[in-house]
Amino acid sequence: MRTLAEWLRWQESLSPHAIELGLERVRTVLDRLDLHPPAGRVATVAGTNGKGTTVTLLQDLLLAGGRHPGLYSSPHLLRYNERIRICGQPIGDADLVQAFERVEAVRGDIPLTYFEFGTLAAFICFAQAGCDSWILEVGLGGRLDAVNGLAPDLALITTIGLDHQDWLGDTIEEIAAEKAGIMRAGRPAFYADQPVPAAIRRHAAETGVLLAVAGTGFSYQPGSIAGTAGQRSWSWQCAARRLSGLEAPAHWTAAQFRNASLVLAALSVLEPVLLDDIAALNAVFARSRPDGRFQQVHAAHEWILDVAHNPQAAAVLRAQLETLPASRSTTIVTTLLADKAITPFVTALAPVATRWIVAGIDDARASTSERLHAGMAAAGIAGATYAATPAEAFALAERLTPATGRIVVCGSFRIVAPAMQWLGLY
Q: Which terminus of the chain, N or C, has fewer Cβ atoms within 10 Å?
């Protein structure tokens, strides 16, 4: 019997391509598995940014209401098991191996990719655990992503920005068309941002999707910050339903309100009764946050860990940093993969940075030092320091940052995960 580590190594070699978009392989194996998702309760989430926060908040609100959700997300930070959660807890090794064995037993000669194999395993785990809601985060794009092999009952799209252009297209409209592919005829869908890409509206109109968009179909209104904990009051409305007395942490910016508003819209379809308990909603808003998303750690310094890795996400991170008390010194430790837009990412964060440290990582997809140098220089950053490894970068950050200063780690899951280990969080 293979161990989990052995299964994962083998899956990486099964397909000749690390990424191979398309639904035929997954749908064929899914038919052979003969799984039965809970009727009307499969929610799929796509979008350039905010997916992880959105799926986690939806999971946590369902859990608080006594439901039993399954959550599939990617990538993971430290352990593959994080990708599949049953009632908020990562799947155990034995259950995951059993799911892999079941996929292998029926796939025949179909060369599934690493992501496809894991997606099918997640569906098996949810079915075996009796999860009453399946929450699925798209890995890349939407239309041809493996997650979309299972037709969702509810489609959520967070926002559209430029990322993964090699796969999705070079314009907002091209990328939006790919993400719109998770929407299904006759089923509800919510888009959380403004302006709404024409491709989203066009797909909905052509296929009969029940589309509601932010600002008209549903909306939120933030209020003032008050109270000893600095909560921000806000309200939300969808159709004839209005919620007042909602509270949010002070570090929420427009992006976090947008994500939360989207999740409340999802609840209005999946579990409208949960919208009746404002106190329960507020309790979840106060604590729900996936690891590596504006994660604040107080050690010898104040650390902020965030997996922001594209210009849109960098702008959100900057806005969140600006909600904190001003820091006399902020060190940003970053690395970016080769397919990322280095200069606009750095430009978005430059106004809040005192110094930059760029770390090398052991990843075939990592940017070369020459490309990182050029990208930083184009953003007007001439004095960045370069470290060979994440550990060296973190140690250097601690030495260079005053005790009252702040260290921000961002740019990739591949830099945030080592920071969590460095800080003893795992």
A: N
